[in-house]
Input
Amino acid sequence: MTDKLILNEDRFFDPDPKIRKVARELYEGVKDLPIISPHGHIDPRWFAENKPFPDPAELIVTPDHYVFRMLHSQGIRLESLGIPTVDGSPVEQDRREIWQLFADNFYLFLGTPTGIWLNHEFSQVFGVKEKLNGKSAQRIYEQIQEKLQSPDFLPRALFDRFNIEAISTTDGAADSLEHHETIRKSGWNAKIVPSFRPDGVVNHLHTDIWRQNIKDLGRASGMDIGSYAAYIRALEKRREFFKSRGATSTDHAVLVPYTHELTSGEVNGIFQRALKGRATGDDDAPRFTAHMLMELARMSIEDGLVMQIHPGSYRGHNEMVMKKFGPDKGGDIPIQTEYTFNLHELLNRYGNDPRLTLVIFNLDESTNSRELAPLAGHYPAVKLGPPWWFFDSVEGMTRFRQSVIETAGFYNTVGFNDDTRAFASIPARHDLSRRVDSNFLAGLVTRHVIDLDEAQSLSRALAYDLAKETYRL
Output
């Protein structure tokens, strides 16, 4: 076993020499294309302030739930990884200790996309020449730390080095977007735009958090939200504000993609009960969300923002982790999801309107060929988002292409997005996608399903054109 970190040039390509040869050629044609990152969770503050990243642990371990969910699954306490607690109770502060613990257990990521991304990141971004493990941990920490303090590794410098053409952040409905404004006024020529995510004021009507979010929405929109009509107008005003700051899309997480338009009396009744803290979670909340998906689609037709939905994730499944550390800590678990009946009302109202682009992200693979590919292959509004969360992997992306392309075609998908909070992993994630898609297309070429020149056009579309065109970036 070698301790050298070497990335094989043919990684993720088929061992069949005929397929591998074509895959290499296709990949060479797209590997240096600019990155379009239309959906993710990068903090715009990094680029507004352009300060050095503090240390390797802060950059690579603590912000990335892909990393610490695996460590947690092996009984490693999140406190020992420096993950902040909701109540501010103590967690490990020694960044070297956090890094050492991470390195001691790096073997857990063998065969996973996280391991693939991290090795690419270590090798290609930071020039690390040895594998990360317990023995090499502190040497690699020092090497990365030294580079993070240099001008070449400031956030804006890395953005340019990664050849990012456009990136979209994810921002709450009441967000001031002050960091986006700072970036714009700085004169730095980078396209970093917000994406409107109103989950906090749409979902979970039975919680006190929702009522506080409504107050925040009212302050941000300059309105007193005491009625459903005022609430809708506030959302429309915030969407207008986001568009003025460059937004091209919205984003909506729902447990199930149920859509249904309520009567005026029904929706006003639920809204008033929610304002008083009397809405029910089992009935009022899902019905209100179903109605709001209809409203949000209507808004997207009117203002042109691309509508993304992320159904099928039971968020915060681990109640202990959710209570102690808050959301987005690796405890989101996929559920069985139905689309054909749930989206029927929305698609029959709006799915034939060319002004609507509805991008659907899916966590239930069993629906890809049975429901989603046929829906995307029929309704002009529907596009299929790439595999995400548990399926943004070599096998997951391959299965996705195999299950949807024959019915939906390539051009009813939207290319790739990285959906990441880990900034330094962006080039690794896009490189993996470009390699996997090159290999998939090479298989079609060698089986004479498509010609090489067609595969070259498709390869560029999947790596760059589809994301740029769909999200109007």
Remarks:
- The first strand starts at residue 35 and ends at 37.
